[in-house]
Specification:
Blueprint lengths: L4 E9 L5 H11 L10 E5 L5 E10 L6 H17 L6 E7 L6 E5 L7 E3 L3 E3 L2
Antiparallel strand pairs: 1-3, 1-4, 2-3, 4-5, 6-7
Length: 124
């Protein structure tokens, strides 16, 4: 069976002109395993907020798995490309089976779209 986690990640922008570049980045850098209707969808919000949300429930989020490594590399690369600016934003939350096993990461300019309520929620 193995240890399972619920994971949510968002990659987004407040500049509608930037969204096609973010979509292209996702297509080129996120492993194909995650780029399916089961896990990935686009969203829109107020003031030109546009992004891509990944929702993965009950996954074995093991760092040794190649698809997990690829997703983590995509986050790292996205963060480097955003270069601390406010055009490309990202957030990541992982909830493990244990109550204290919560991992939250985001860029410094994030809008805090993801939040934990002992499940993963998103306003979009």
């Amino acid at each position: 069976m193995g240890y399972r986690s619920d994971v949510m990640a968002v990659f987004y922008t407040q500049d509608a002109i930037e969204f096609p570049s973010i979509k292209l980045f996702i297509d080129e850098h996120v492993p194909e395993f995650f780029r399916t209707d089961e896990y990935m969808r686009t969203f829109e919000g107020n003031h030109d907020l546009r992004g891509i949300k990944f929702t993965m429930n009950g996954l074995k989020w093991y760092p040794s798995y190649p698809d997990i490594q690829g997703f983590e590399r995509a986050i790292e690369k996205f963060e480097k490309l955003s270069d601390g600016g406010d055009k490309w934003l990202w957030e990541f939350v992982r909830l493990g089976e244990e109550v204290e096993d919560v991992e939250e990461r985001s860029c410094s300019e994030s809008e805090s779209l993801l939040y934990v309520v002992r499940s993963i929620e998103c306003d979009y």
